[in-house]
Amino acid sequence: MSGSSSSTSPPTLASINDVSALFQTAKKYEELNVIGTGAYGTVYKARDLHNGGQIVAMKKVKVALTEDGIPLSTLREIALLRQLEAYRHPNIVRLLDVCHGGQSLERESQLVLFLVFEHVEQDLESYLKRAPGPLSENRIRSMSYDILSGTDFLHSHRIVHRDLKPHNLLVTSSGRVKLADFGLAKTYDTDMKLTSVVVTLWYRPPEVLLGVSYNTAVDVWSCACVLAQLHTRTPLLPGSCDSEQLHCIFRLIGRPPRHEWPENVSIMADSFPDYPPQDLANVLPRIHPQALDLIKGMLVFDPAKRLTALDCLEHPYFTDEPLT
Amino acid sequence: MPYWYYDKKDLQNTPSFRDGILNETENRYRKEGARFIIDTGSKMDLGYNTVATGVVYFHRFYMFHSFRTFPRYITACCCLFLAGKVEETPKKCKDIIKVAKSLLTEQKFNTFGDDPKEEVMTLERILLQTIKFDLQVEHPYGYLLKYAKCLKGEKVKLQKMVQMAWTFVNDSLCTTLCLQWEPEVIAVALMFLAGKLSKFEVVDWNGRTSKHNAWWDMFVEDISMDLLEDICHQVLDLYSPPTQLSGAESPPPQLGNKTVPKNEKPSVTPPTSASPVTVAKAVVTPVKNGSDAKLEPPKIDMRFTYPGYAPIPPYPSIYSAPPPAIPPPTRLPLPPGPPLSLYAEPPPSTRFPPVNVPPPNYFPPMPTRGPMPPRGPIPPGPPPPRPYYPPP
Ligand SMILES: Nc1ncnc2c1ncn2[C@@H]1O[C@H](COP(=O)(O)OP(=O)(O)O)[C@@H](O)[C@H]1O
Ligand SMILES: [Mg+2]
């Protein structure tokens, strides 16, 4: 139990001696080493000193304080993460604790938040890198299902992940996949982002690259890119910059017909060559025909015509044979 | 994940108790803090949901801290401030403090220190840490409306019953019930109480099966009559005048060693004078916060008789504005007859929105419950909704 106090100080907060102690609940955790540095925070491997030294993953996020304390958007996002946790979805990383380290010493107007997660063996990026050879069809199918289940769960709670990619998918020692790194979009936005960190574009759908409004369908596109990568172990659409990424996409799915091109976009459809659509089977050779059909249904330019995550889960690729 | 339900032993052995504050005094502090949140919230036109969330934070906070360390009114302000943000009905900290100042005596407001806003800001971080960022809180209101929809019977009477139950839910915030039972259980119990008092007997309901003995079996499994009665008593106890000293105005600053505060003044008697009814002595033994675990359950079966109940004295003055849907409580002498008729009049309601016209989507859709705690198992709700919304 954190924060319980038996202070003997008189009742004015400013003079309570143990206020700083109250803030130090992050001391419940002993930081071991950095396991990930992202654009917004650092993830540490840590020991939970109050729980038999259990190993956890602790994410430090800096929050800019406003005149009225902790921003509403941050509180809403944490409330939602906490609420989601009650479902204990098997494909969502467990959120064990949330605490803060008090106002940061360097900057009065900042609060350091700690999100404590279960520690999962590795992320999908390193899993695929380390894989000695192609993954078995069964493994691919079950991982694909896990990813789509977690995504559908978020969508059913009105959360758009926005950044699904192998780095944000964790693989347990038994090969199950769990989604991580979601739900703090607004908290991040208020904070200064580290510009030095390169954000990968490879999993971004065209509507995001074009800068038009987007919805849950963005995650289905990203899932498709990840699913394809499970088969080949190399990224499907490795563009090097925004426009190069769009070229990459259109070279694969063809330049969309003019009537599908979204309105209010500064880039014209004509600025791209009239790429014909490629047969996905050539890009993903030896792939299970149902898997191919599924991915085709997900890599659709018009977000409204893309399969939803729930549609994907009901696709024959998963339903024809039982998952093992 | 934190677990927020306590048994009665835990509720007695609180940080305040260990700090030398009597249980009764603590309960009064809790009641005063809760009422203050309700008052301040109402004055600022905050909805019942925000107010209730603030009160739950308040009760949870004092399961980890003593009233001696953290004076109740500033904690209350902070709870309301945080609840406002979490429920997306934010109020400026300085505005809350302004209202608080107008509602408190100078002496009480002095506990806010020289820089009240800074104090609340500091306290916000302590509060968040204490409640472990578990910010989303469910309340009985939504369940009350949901359950009422399933009950069959005369519409006017049902309406009356729901209105009364709603008021009981408001008032239950002044008890520690939210630290003992899930909102579903509280909703059932207070509807049960309101049904008895308004003489609305539920004989049939939608979704009834042969397995159901009572309508609530549909929503909460294994809820015993003893439990229902215990919950009802805890709320009814709010309306009975305190029978003994209930503690000092404020905990005296601690002087080294911990001693039970002495020289406690009797608290101000609540304004019972508004009622022409003399308060009958309750026949039913209320199950007090388990000072004795083996305490016999009340002998009277609440399902059938009510003569023993003390009539509900006038409502706490804070609930001043009756909703338009219900006539103001009469102050005329009550019609002659058996005491039962006293219960025919629904208690005046609060300023919170009247329940007869819940705006559409007033309550967020019910998600399926997470793993239920061991007590009061509740059948899972409908599957989570699947609307695919674009992000805001
Ligand atoms: N629960 C966890 N267990 C193990 N490793 C994790 C966990 N969470 C994150 N990581 C590692 O840390 C990296 C960064 O974490 P992430 O939550 O994605 O933060 P960021 O917002 O900085 O991308 C991930 O790519 C992953 O390798
Ligand atoms: Mg990440």
UniProtKB/TrEMBL annotation, chain A:
Group of enzyme by EC: transferase
Residue ranges of domain Protein kinase in the record: 29-318
Lipid metabolism in keyword set: no
Reaction(s) the record says it catalyses: L-threonyl-[protein] + ATP = O-phospho-L-threonyl-[protein] + ADP + H(+); L-seryl-[protein] + ATP = O-phospho-L-seryl-[protein] + ADP + H(+)
GO molecular function: ATP binding; cyclin binding; cyclin-dependent protein serine/threonine kinase activity
Family statement drawn from the similarity comment of this UniProt entry: Belongs to the protein kinase superfamily. CMGC Ser/Thr protein kinase family. CDC2/CDKX subfamily.
UniProt-recorded name of the protein: cyclin-dependent kinase
Lineage of producing organism: Eukaryota, Metazoa, Ecdysozoa, Arthropoda, Hexapoda
UniProtKB/TrEMBL annotation, chain B:
One Pfam family recorded for the sequence: Cyclin_N
Cyclin-like domain segment(s): 35-129, 142-237
Residue numbers spanned by region Disordered: 243-277, 329-392
Cellular location(s): Nucleus
UniProt cross-references to SMART domains, sorted A to Z: CYCLIN (SM00385)
One GO CC term on file: nucleus
Coiled-coil residues: none
Residue stretches of biased makeup (Low complexity): 266-277
Keyword entries, A-Z: Cell cycle, Cell division, Cyclin, Mitosis, Nucleus, Transcription, Transcription regulation
UniProt keyword annotation of Transcription present: yes
Molecular function in Gene Ontology: cyclin-dependent protein serine/threonine kinase regulator activity
Organism: Leptosia nina
Family label: Belongs to the cyclin family.
One GO biological process term: regulation of transcription by RNA polymerase II
SUPFAM superfamilies cross-referenced by the UniProt entry: Cyclin-like (SSF47954)
InterPro entries: Cyclin-like_dom, Cyclin-like_sf, Cyclin/Ssn8, Cyclin_N
Function: Regulatory subunit of cyclin-dependent kinases that mediates activation of target kinases. Plays a role in transcriptional regulation via its role in regulating the phosphorylation of the C-terminal domain (CTD) of the large subunit of RNA polymerase II (POLR2A).
Name of the protein in question: Cyclin-K
Keyword Protein biosynthesis (UniProt): no
